[in-house]
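Forum > Structural Biology > Help requests

Title: Can anyone predict the 3D structure of Exopolyphosphatase 1?

Hi all, first post here. I have the sequence for Exopolyphosphatase 1 but no way to get a structure on my laptop. I'd be grateful if someone could post the structure tokens.
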Amino acid sequence: MFYVRLGVLDVGSNTVHLLVVDAHRGGHPTPMSSTKAALRLAEAIDDSGKLTRRGADKLVDTVDEFAKIAASSGCADLMAFATSAVRDAKNSEEVLARVLAETGVNLQVLSGANESRLTFLAVRRWYGWSAGRIINLDIGGGSLELSNGVDEAPEVAMSLPLGAGRLTREWLPDDPPGRRRVAMLRDWLDNELAASAAAVLAAGEPDLAVATSKTFRSLARLTGAAPSGAGPRVKRTLTANGLRQLISFISRMTTADRAELEGVSAERAPQIVAGALVAEASMRALSLEYVDICPWALREGIILRRLDSEADGTALVETSVGDAGSTNSDRPTPARSRGTR
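Reply #1:
Sure, ran it for you. Structure tokens for Exopolyphosphatase 1 below:
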């Protein structure tokens, strides 16, 4: 069996993550290494909506460093993509051009809808056809993705500006967050999610409800799910009741105290309350009493689509700059890049 070593460079709102895997079409991608850096790009957006010079500098330096790691790891291809923070920046095209010029990496921006589709692909491959109709929820730093379908391509895929980091900045500036602000955010989320949840459910009632992302994994761990050291195949579940109890507990804690909890990193501690509130509101809007936690998400979806694209000759991903809710299906762009200058 011929394996190819691939690198996936994920530029998110909070972190930049390089995942190196060995993979082949029809097989299970095997993780070989994982490297992360906390850049907090969403916090580097200025009042005009642009990524600051300092933020762009940090991004260029990190992409360059991680591209060299991918090259030294023997990656045949580096698939580099950015999500909400870069997608929303008004100077994203300028930043992307600079990244390419100074690092040789062709960093692509995923549209919100395509981010949701690729995550759904990973979930479908993990659970297989026997899972039936799947609804998937994914909470990032800047956005919430929802999808619903019975095939590998979901019938509904959407992205909403309801990420944990975004809502922390906009709604919960105090530490710990005040009880009144938590209640206000709860009510606001219910209103914001009503129409979108109805559209997701209109495609069909799910046989399986799934959640992906670090936020959901942390919430599940805090409510008693197995630790990451138990391996990816251990069943992990987050219940609505457990989530409600957790919120009443962590919303009274300071960021420093939350960072001491098992399963919560120092980088995630400031926004875990907002993340929990988004998770709770999403599950309530979709009438879900529990969700299974899937270990695969967007990065694995990118890898799987890359392997599929070699066989059928299609573009790896559709990209869109500055549009969180749709894809430029008339202008697909392969998200391939060089790993070195």
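The two ends are 31 Å apart (CA to CA). DSSP finds eleven helices and eleven strands in the chain.
Shout if anything looks off.
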